[in-house]
Amino acid sequence: MKILIIGDRHVGGYGLTAGQISFIGHFIRQINETGRAVSVEAYVQSTLSAVQATLAHLPLERYDLILVQAGQGCLDHPAGLGALFAPDNDTLPDLSGDLILPDCLQVTKKVRSDGILDHVVKIGQFMLLKGLTALGKLPRQRIVQRELTNVLTVLKPHRHKVILLSPFPHREPVHQWLRQQGRSLFMRSEVRQAFSVFDSDAVVKPRDEYFLTNDSGHLNAIGHELVGRALFDFYLAAPTIVAIHSIRRS
C-alpha cells in the first residue's frame, strides 16, 4: 500500500524527542497491525499554493491513499500577521518554511516585555481581524479560499482515495481564531460531500496538555498520538475511501 502525505512540519514530528513518533507514524503503525505493508512518501509544505504545486507534479494515480493536512499556512501564515494583508499570494516568496516578511509588512514585532501592553495589542489585533472578516475585507482569507479550490480541483479525479485534514489547533488566541476560519473552509458542505474531511479540531483542543512546552503551535507526543489514532479510525469509517476494502477483507 502506497501512501502520499503532504502537510506542515507536524508530518515529520517537529519538536518530538527520540522514541516519539508523529501522528503519521501512529497512523501507519495501526495499518501495519492489520498485516498490510505500507510505503510512505511525504512532503512538507506550509501553504496551500505550495501543496497544489507539489500535487501537480506527482503521479497521483499511483498512490492508494492521499492525505493532505492543512498546515500552519492555511490562514495564519508562517510569515506572520502581516501576510494576512498581502494583496496576492503570488507576490510572496517561497513560504515552505517559517519565514519572516520585511518590516514594512509586519503588523507587530515580538519585542515587548510589558505583558499588559502585549495583551492589549493582541485584543486589538483580534478585534481588527474579526471586523475585517465580517466585512469580507481580509485579503488572505479570500486568497486561501481560492487556493483550497485549486487544490481540490487537482485532487477531484482521485477523491475516492483522499483524506483532507483540517488545520490543527493553536494555543495562541489570534492564531487559533484564524485557524478556525481556515477550518470553516474545509468543513463546508460542498467540500465534505465530495471528500472525506477529518476534523482535527474534534480530536485535540488548544490546551497545554496537547502541545510542546514553550511552543503554542506544535503538538506534543500526546497530541500526535491522539490525532494518529483518531485518523486511523476515521480512515476505517470513511465511506469514500476505496483502499479500505482490502484491509477489511484481510
Q: If you had to describe this structure to a student in words, what would you say it looks like?
A:
- The protein has 250 residues and is α/β, with parallel strands linked by helices.
- The chain has helices spanning 23-32, 48-56, 115-134, 139-155, 173-186, 189-194, 221-237, 244-249; strands at 2-7, 39-44, 65-69, 162-165, 196-198.
- It starts with a strand and ends with a helix.
How far is it from the N-terminal to the C-terminal residue, by CA?
13 Å
CATH topology: Rossmann fold
**Tally of DSSP helical segments:** 8
- Give the rounded overall mean pLDDT: 82
Shape estimate: globular
> For this structure, what is the CATH class?
Alpha Beta
Number of domains: 1
Which tags fit this structure?
single chain; 250 residues; alpha/beta; Rossmann fold; five-stranded parallel sheet; 8 helices; 5 strands; globular; hydrolase activity; hydrolase
